[in-house]
Recover the amino acids of this structure.
């Protein structure tokens, strides 16, 4: 074949590729030919045919055209016996920590079982007759965000009851980097089940592979685990979410600030629940030297917000220009140094702060007056050790 013929063939292949991208734009693809796992039904529908399925999902379980995955599956003849709903419920409108009741999806008539409160793990009787649990939730990529804990319990129940788990992968808005203290065993809880840093740099599908591969499920059991990967996903690129993952993460800015500001949930400082800027502001009545003022009031997603009705002084970060690819603990240290309340310690008495941090060392470092640089230096060894584990499960370009 002549060189000119080879060039023509190469040009034809390129045109076909770009033509394919353009043609499929209306079929749930963006300009980069990116697709979530949910938008690749050709990969998962054959696995669900003639099976009895339970699905773990919420308001974020959407296809690119904003069709709910549940509705799409019903339309395609998939038999869904049960919908399992995580924290915040199936429609995603419950407060953080609020008890979510079981019920029925009014559109499809499918029973809904809450996987929050007293029933975080599917019971054997709830999995009876089910062949596959399909998991599709937009995660945030932070250890204390509880959707990865729900996935862990679902995998554990699947392994114990002979039920396959299929995960439809979605972007991690904090992908491509790791940061924060690594959780230590004595602080394990539903807001931190595994020895990983605050930001672990894996998609939810990769995270499930890691939990399974490292035998982190109870008694070292392993689930029959299938991951439906995304198409043309890159870890360093930021993909906007189709719907807010929970009521108090209403936009990309709140999601970006969340890993840095969530530590305040273990202190006497509000992160703006009960305002129009949750996880974009912080403050308390006892940090009066800080410039921004706000007053939490009951609203959607915060029926009784922390510091309800009290004037708070803090900072407004809603216009913070940086797209964070690391934890910023300067705000935490600033709030602590400006906190003036002799009657009440900065940290909550229940030491929920230590559960969020995954260790008591961060709290002790703050009290001792350590700088941000000193604190972050102390994380390096744990992060290096975790990086070696993480590398085994990375599926996408890092």
């Amino acid at each position: 074949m002549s060189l000119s013929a080879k060039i023509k063939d190469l040009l034809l292949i390129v045109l076909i590729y770009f033509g394919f991208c353009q043609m499929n734009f209306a079929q749930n693809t963006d300009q980069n030919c990116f697709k979530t796992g949910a938008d690749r039904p050709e990969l998962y529908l054959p696995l669900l045919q003639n099976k009895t399925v339970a699905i773990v999902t919420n308001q974020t379980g959407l296809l690119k055209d904003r069709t709910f995955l549940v509705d799409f599956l019903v339309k395609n003849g998939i038999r869904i016996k049960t919908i399992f709903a995580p924290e915040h419920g199936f429609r995603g409108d419950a407060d953080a920590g609020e008890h979510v009741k079981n019920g029925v999806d009014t559109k499809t008539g499918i029973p809904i079982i809450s996987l929050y409160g007293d029933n975080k793990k599917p019971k054997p009787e709830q999995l009876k007759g089910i062949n596959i649990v399909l998991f599709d939730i937009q995660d945030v990529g932070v250890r204390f965000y509880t959707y990865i804990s729900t996935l862990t319990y679902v995998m554990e129940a699947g392994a114990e009851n002979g039920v396959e788990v299929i995960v439809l992968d979605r972007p991690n808005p904090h992908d491509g980097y790791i940061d924060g203290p690594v959780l230590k065993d004595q602080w394990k809880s539903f807001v931190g089940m595994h020895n990983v840093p605050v930001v672990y740099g894996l998609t939810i599908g990769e995270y499930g592979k890691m939990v399974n591969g490292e035998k982190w499920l109870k008694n070292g059991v392993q689930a029959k685990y299938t991951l439906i990967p995304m198409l043309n996903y890159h870890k360093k690129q930021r993909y906007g979410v189709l719907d807010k993952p929970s009521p108090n993460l209403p936009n990309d800015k709140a999601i970006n600030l969340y890993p840095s500001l969530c530590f305040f949930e273990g202190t006497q400082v509000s992160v703006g629940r009960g305002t129009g800027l949750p996880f974009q502001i912080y403050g308390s009545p006892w940090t009066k030297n800080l410039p921004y003022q706000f007053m939490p009031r009951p609203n959607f997603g915060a029926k009784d917000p922390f510091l309800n009705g009290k004037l708070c002084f803090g900072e407004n970060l809603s216009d913070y220009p940086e797209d964070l690819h690391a934890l910023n603990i300067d705000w935490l240290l600033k709030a602590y140094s400006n906190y003036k309340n002799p009657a009440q310690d900065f940290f909550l008495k229940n030491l929920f702060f230590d559960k969020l941090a995954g260790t008591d060392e961060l709290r002790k470092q703050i009290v001792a007056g350590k700088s941000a640089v000193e604190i972050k230096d102390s994380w390096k060894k744990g992060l290096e050790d975790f990086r070696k584990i993480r590398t085994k499960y990375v599926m996408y370009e890092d």
About this structure: Residues 3-23 form the longest helix (21 residues). The CA atoms of residues 143 and 198 lie 5 Å apart. The chain has two domains: 41-241, 252-367. The radius of gyration is 22 Å.
